[in-house]
Amino acid sequence: MKVCKLLTGKISLACASWAMASVCTWAAPHFILEPDTLLQRWVQLDSAAVSAYAPLLPSEQIAMSLWTADTALATGFGSPDVANALNAIPGVLMETRGLGGSRRLSIRGSSLRSPFAVRNTMLFVHGFCLTEADGTSPVEWLEPRWSAPLRVVSGPAATSYGGAYGGAILVEPDFLPGLAQMRTSFGTTGRSGGLQSHTSVQVSENGWEARLAHAQNTGYRTWEGNERWQAELSRRWQGDKATHHTWLAVLDASWDLPGSVDSLTATETPEFAPGGQYNAHVQRRRALAGHHVHVSDVTVFGNRSTVDVWTLMRLTDKVNPFGTSPFFNGYKEESGAGASLRLRQRWVPIERPSWTLQAERNALGSLDQGRFELWDDPLLAAMGAQLYNLTMQGWQAQWTPSVAMSHHKGWRLEASVAASARGRAADGTASDTTYSAPFNAAEWLPRVGISKALGPKLSVFSQASTGYSDPTNFETLPFEDGADASATLVSERARSVEVGLRLPGLECVLYHQAVQSPIVEQVDSLGISTFVNADAPLQMQGLETRAQWQGTHHALSLAATLQHHQLNGKGMPGSPPWMANFQWTWQPRWAPMWTAHTWIRGLGETPLNNDNTVSHPSHLTANVELTCNVPGHGVQVTLGCRNLTNTAYSGWQQVNAFGGRFYNPAPPRTFTVGLTWRHRS
Fold this sequence. Notes:
The protein has seven helices and 37 strands.
């Protein structure tokens, strides 16, 4: 599927939907907030200054792929994480092991080199950058009941959010003063005696907000249980010259790693978990402390503007006894500390009756340091020989100036260029030898975007952009046989172009993307993994569309993705050729307190190795939920069923797996019951 001629330059996108506020592409919160609240949030200047800002364009006119997740999916069907909501977004695929276990995210095929974790995608919560300097994003922070609104910027158009060519996830949790609410759900896991539970509590008053959540399940497979505690405390207040927001958060999570299995085992005994014999699991603790300062009227370098500063400190600790893949088996410990700083300045240098020029300066920096230790444990008993003892450092910095010109006839043109620099080092011992692996990269990331409003609810846009993905420390480490994996690995670089059309209730996006020097995993006959840069580029084309209709008693939503992703002339492993989501919501005229919600999801046949000799068959799953709102009491009761059709499928594809172990069987039919209580003072 040939889409468009790829532009070699770098690119930007046009934030035409917010023709005023979007000073360019680095405006993260600018994309997060609704248009009618933008001026209130960040342009609280006096009348003279406000007059310099033209009226905002409708949000549907943004010159980029920006998708809003369905809140009902994030919290419905007893959802233990945000996988449901993300999987209903065109071009997005989030895989999980079990119900709320480990996660992997792909946006337009960005997970090729992610045997685990989330890479190639930036993560922002409350405007804070949670992505670590090595490019890893901790999506386990996204408690589904606290993650609305949740939006996804697809592809390298998200350069303003850090340059990852997969895109960015933007979460700006709602703050509702005077709110007290509790949500709890219980359900089955698909096997006899298996149970799951999820409870969250939230209280907001006088600028303070406290949240607490707990999720637990025993798993469908015999070694698949997980548990997560999460707590947040935040305070918002107005100072003499600035608005402040302090955010504290902690996470304590553990999940077992059941391990992948071959096709025969997945069919005959899907509950079998080879990881159980190794006590394979992960225990992870995280802590965050952040502060945001917003100044609505300040003069910087002679420009009267708004300024935002986000600072974040983070701590992490992880214990991983015996992984279940041939990649770093053993007893693993990781710990680290890091910080990120984000700056944004917006102003209007020129304002004319027929056109307006806006400007923006953005800066993003991250610094992390930690330890990585791995012991061999061949007897599955006490720790054996230490294979790795490394100190790891990483940093990244990006400076993005941008301008945007808006014309009163509906045209909007944006241009930006980001200067990006990254560095990383791993020092210590590996396989009883001294090891040092420094890595540095720097490049320019220009971009351009244009949009045109053809009517009140009709617009077209086009944008071209570039992004990158650096090799991780783990991809450059020597492996257990002593072989140096890839000290010569270079960064991937992506170039993308897309065009889009938006109508009332309909959005379509066509994209073409090429990734130069893609990093691919190779597994030899002994199960030893290495990573190399492929000679041929990764070619990616796709069509993403979503249609929505709202009636008096019915609501319909259809999201569909067609993608043609090729590596060396063959289908990219882990990337299905099509994805589809259908939702139907019905509130009977004769029973307005009841609501029925149906969600059907389908994926096409997916190649699982580089040679395309193994694939996962196409499949459909159906989910239903019935909700009852008790009038006058703030109480809501739900009954739900996931995988109503009892479809057998793999919820996590082990790409290029050793020994034919490509599959992680997903739970069969499960049932949930939930209760929500909400009180507004």
